[in-house]
From TrEMBL:
Pfam families noted in UniProt: PGI (PF00342)
Protein name: Glucose-6-phosphate isomerase
InterPro entries in UniProt: G6P_Isomerase, SIS_dom_sf
Keywords noted in UniProt: Gluconeogenesis, Glycolysis, Isomerase
Coiled-coil residue spans: none
Gene Ontology terms for molecular function: isomerase activity
Isomerase as UniProt keyword: yes
Family, per entry: Belongs to the GPI family.
EC numbers on record: 5.3.1.9
Associated pathway: Carbohydrate degradation; glycolysis; D-glyceraldehyde 3-phosphate and glycerone phosphate from D-glucose: step 2/4
Record field: catalytic activity: alpha-D-glucose 6-phosphate = beta-D-fructose 6-phosphate
Length: 535
């Protein structure tokens, strides 16, 4: 595992804090699991959150149990692995499975259309992994209820198909015991976003066919280096992240185009945004974007020379080193890297809105797109210009889409089309393309997140960070809603309440926040992309 600084300004910023980290004995203290590293207020929480440091070793104890689980699934011919889990309870497994090229369906959405896709994937061979540390996350609880009902309706005993990963004593543990589900208990001293190498990352990945022993070996090889004062890649990367942010380079552009690891930036995004984005401080991760060459950027290349810093290493080692580096950066920024104090507000708003939905009246309508929120614009190009103009000199624009993230693959493609044509057709139907189109028009970072997934990741930074974001939310009509058994709401109602709840939390902090509602999803996305090109 190697961290190579390729740009002089970053080297200076990192060395400006490296001495302090050594003088304070940070590597020795982290190796000893000292919870006082993040200040008095964080000590109690940190004391219960440092188990990730030893996961390369302690998770080996899980291997026989996971091996039996894999045999159990294989014996029943369960080859279609669906993982229901939000944020840290699914992001790592997604990277592992993409990197090892084994299929895994991740459900971290409340979009009824996307959930229907997963239900249609062949229930007879499906194993559902329900992953929630708290055991109380509304999205994951809804997925469990929907799949239980679907299995029963198909004449399948859910007890033969459901695996639960949760913390001891969570409500989900008891529910799993009562229902007779397969149950794997995770370590309670590891927080969600630090849980890649715990049962949360390992169980779904192993069921999908990834070689999880290798991951632990890779992490195990780098672990001893993390106790060193010299040649410690976690300390070096932590000094880069923290030193750069303290010197004004707080937009972390993650570049991985040449990497053999697929999708690591999405996992880093949650780790960095939720760990550091609080108390008016933080680092904004920017995924899938080209750098603009502006002064507040830090470009980190994963296995790639396209950056100010190059980080090389196998996936298991990357997980551990980024966790370590984030914890070190937390100390430098003087924040508690283990809590997420601003996530609760949007959740409270969602609960209230589920009881009494209040979408309000659109400010204007442009074709299949209704626009909600405060704006002087009267058409979409005007609105997009207004939002871009509202981004402060040190700020960013976040596009947040509560839609089906697989919908673009339904786009009609000419028969016999080559890969390039197919990609063009998908991009023209993908709400995420809006990010790239808007990025062409500003030198400020433009980020993109799928809702409600981002609520468990960058959502913390949006609300708790420096408060310089501008927010463009997209929701869409639900034409084939999914009821949530045993709950007084459908997925469609939950999704809208989540969107409105977060919009309210952002607007309540004085940030420009507008919602676009697509009254027809397909033509709505096309109309929006055309408006972005026109603006
Ligand atoms: O595993 P749980 O408890 O369902 O939580 C899922 C995610 O929600 C958060 O707790 C808060 O958004 C994340 O930190 C976490 O990864």
């Amino acid at each position: 595992m190697e961290v190579t600084i390729r740009e002089e300004g970053v080297a200076i910023a990192a060395s400006s804090v490296a001495g302090r980290l050594l003088d304070d004995g940070v590597p020795q203290r982290l190796a000893a699991g000292d919870p006082a590293l993040w200040g008095e207020e964080a000590t109690a929480e940190a004391a219960a959150r440092l188990g990730w440091l030893t996961l390369p070793l302690t998770s080996r104890e899980l291997l026989p149990e996971i091996g039996k689980l894999v045999e159990w699934a294989r014996a029943q011919g369960l080859t279609n692995v669906v993982l229901a889990g939000m944020g840290g309870s699914s992001l790592a497994a997604e990277v592992v499975c993409d990197t090892y090229d084994v299929p895994l369906t991740v459900l971290d959405t409340t979009d009824a259309h996307q959930v229907r896709r997963a239900l249609a994937e062949g229930l007879d061979t499906t194993v559902l992994v329900v992953a929630s540390k708290s055991g109380a996350t509304v999205e994951t609880d809804s997925h469990l209820r929907i799949f239980e009902a679907a299995f029963r309706a198909a004449g399948i005993d859910p007890g033969d198909r459901i695996v639960v990963v949760t913390d001891p004593d969570s409500p989900l543990e008891q529910a799993a015991i009562d229902a007779g589900y397969q149950l794997v208990l995770a370590r309670p001293d590891v927080g969600g976003r630090y849980s890649a190498l715990s049962a949360f990352g390992l169980v779904p990945s192993a069921l999908a066919g990834a070689e999880i022993e290798k991951l632990l070996e890779q992490a195990g090889e780098v672990a001893p280096l993390l106790a060193l004062t010299d040649g410690n890649p976690g300390l070096e990367l932590g000094a880069v992240l923290g030193g750069a942010a303290l010197n004004g380079r707080d937009k972390l552009i993650l570049e991985d185009q040449l990497s053999e690891i697929n999708g690591l930036p999405d996992w880093i995004e949650q780790l960095v945004a939720e760990s550091l984005g609080k108390d008016g401080r933080g680092v904004l991760p920017v995924v899938g974007a080209d750098p603009n060459g502006v002064s507040d950027e830090l470009v980190v290349g994963i296995g790639s020379d396209n950056g100010d810093v190059r980080v090389d290493g196998r996936l298991g080692a990357q997980f551990l080193v980024w966790e370590y580096a984030t914890a070190v950066a937390g100390r430098l920024l003087e924040v508690n890297p283990f809590d997420q104090p601003d996530v609760a507000g949007a959740k409270r708003n969602t609960a209230e809105l589920l009881d009494a939905p209040a979408p309000g009246r659109p400010a204007f309508t442009d074709g299949p797109v209704e626009v909600y929120g405060e704006t002087r614009a009267r058409d979409l190009p005007g609105l997009l210009n207004e939002l871009l103009d509202a981004v402060p000199g040190d700020g960013y624009l976040a596009v947040l889409a509560y839609l089906d993230r697989l919908a673009a693959f339904d786009a009609p493609v000419r028969e016999g089309a080559d890969f390039e044509e197919m990609t063009d057709a998908w991009m023209a139907a993908d709400a995420a393309t809006l990010r790239a189109l808007l990025a062409l028009r500003t030198d400020r970072p433009v980020t993109f997140g799928w809702g409600p997934r981002y609520l468990h990741s960058t959502g913390q930074y949006h609300k708790g960070g420096p408060g310089n974001g501008v927010f463009l939310q997209i929701t869409g009509v639900v034409t084939d809603d999914v009821p949530v058994p045993g709950r007084p709401f459908t997925l469609g109602a939950l999704q809208l309440a989540q969107a409105l709840g977060d919009l309210g939390a952002l607007a309540g902090r004085g940030r420009p926040a507008v919602r676009l509602h697509l009254t027809d999803r397909v033509t709505g996305v096309a109309h929006l992309l055309a408006a972005a090109q026109e603006a």
